[in-house]
Amino acid sequence: MMAGLDHRRRLAIAMIAPAVLLVVLLYLVPLGRILALSFTEEPGALANYGQLFTSDVLGRVIMTTLRICILTTAITLVMAYVMAAALTLASPRMRSIMLVLVLLPLWLSVLIRAFAWVTVLRGNGVLNTALVGLGFIGSPLNLVRNETGVVIGMVHYMLPFAILPLYAGMRTIDPRILNAARSLGAGGFTVFRRVFLPLTVPGLFSAFILTFVFSLGFYVTPAILGGGRVMMVAEYISVQVHETLEWGTATMLASVLLFAVFAVIALVGRFADWDSIVGKGDEA
Description:
Layout: H1 2-40, H2 45-54, H3 56-89, H4 92-103, H5 110-121, H6 126-133, H7 147-171, H8 175-183, H9 188-199, H10 201-216, H11 220-225, H12 233-242, H13 247-271, H14 274-278
C-alpha cells in the first residue's frame, strides 16, 4: 500500500514539475531580477524609491492612474451588475444571445478596440456626428485625448471580466429564497437589499479584484485614447525603458505596481471569504 502511494506521489511530482519549472524560469526569475534592479540600479535604492515622495511628475502619474482605475472599476461594477442580473433573468434563448454579445469583445484585439473607440469618439466621429445631427449638442464633445476617452475604453475592455463572475454568482442563488422573502411581505427593493445583494457579494469581490488589478497595468488603451495627454504608470514605465533609459525608475515602478496588486488582494482578503470568491468544491 505504501509503495503504491509513493509511486503515485512521485508520478504526481513528475507531472507538475515541468509546469513549476516554467513558472519559476519565465515568471519568478524575471520578477526577482526586476526587484533586484530596483534596488541596485544607479543612483541606488534610496534615490529610486525616494522618487515616490519627491518627484512631482511621478506623483501626477500615480494619481492619474489611481483616479482612472477607481473610476473605471466603479463604472464597470455598476454596469456589470445590471447586465449580469439581466442575464440571470433572461430566457434561455435570449441568455445565449446576450452571452455571445458579452464575450464578443474578448475575441477582438485590444488594439483594434482602442482604434475603434477613437473612430467613434473623435470630434468628427460617429457619436459626435449623430448627436450634432439630432440637435442634442451644438458642437462636438471632447471625448478623446483625455481621461474621458481612456475610461470609456477601459470600461468597455473590462466589462466581460466583471460580468462573468457576477453572473456565475447570481446563477447559484436559489429563487426560492427570494420568493420566501416576498411571501413574508418584503418589497422588491427590500428583497434586493436584504437578500439578493448580500448573496452576490462574493461575485462583486471577484469582479472588483479583476477590474482594479487589470486596470492598474493598462497600457495600450490609455496610450491610444489618451493621445499622449493621459500618462498612466504602465506607459510611464515604457517611456523610462525605451526613451530615457532610466532603468532604476522603471524597475522601481514595476515593483511598486506588483506590490500594489498584492496589497489590493490582501486587503480584499481581510473583508471577504476567499473560499466563496474563488469557489470551494464540495467536501465528501
